[in-house]
Write a structure and sequence with these properties.
Layout (H helix, E strand, L loop, with lengths): L3 E3 L4 H6 L5 E6 L4 H16 L5 E6 L4 H6 L7 E6 L2 E7 L4 H11 L2
Length: 107
């Protein structure tokens, strides 16, 4: 299962109103570390299918949401639960660290 493409237009529906926790990967095409972490984000989408929604938001094309959440460096991954940010990770981190963060918020 591939991550959902999140945009300024569908952010409220896909993320804020989601019944499951959501992991959003804020990324851009030109960002090297974003490309490094992309396969890990896809693995999480598969491994937590049904328990966690995983999405990717291109900051170049969706600046409204990126500005709203103060995204200054990418990759930044935010975990949302019940419409609120409950955790964040900045930078290309090892999968183990992401799994630890995600596990805390998934039932």
């Amino acid at each position: 299962m591939k991550p959902v493409e999140i945009t300024d237009a569908n952010f409220q529906t896909e993320v804020l109103k989601s019944g499951t926790p959501v992991l959003i990967d804020f990324w851009a095409e030109w960002c090297g570390p974003c490309k490094m972490i992309a396969p890990v984000v896809e693995e999480l989408a598969n491994e937590y299918q049904g328990k966690l929604k995983v999405g990717k938001l291109d900051v170049d094309n969706n600046q409204q949401v990126a500005m709203q959440y103060g995204i200054r460096s990418i990759p930044t991954l935010l975990i949302f639960k019940d419409g609120k940010v409950v955790d964040q990770v900045v930078g290309a981190v090892p999968k183990k660290m992401l799994v630890e963060k995600v596990t805390k918020h998934v039932n």
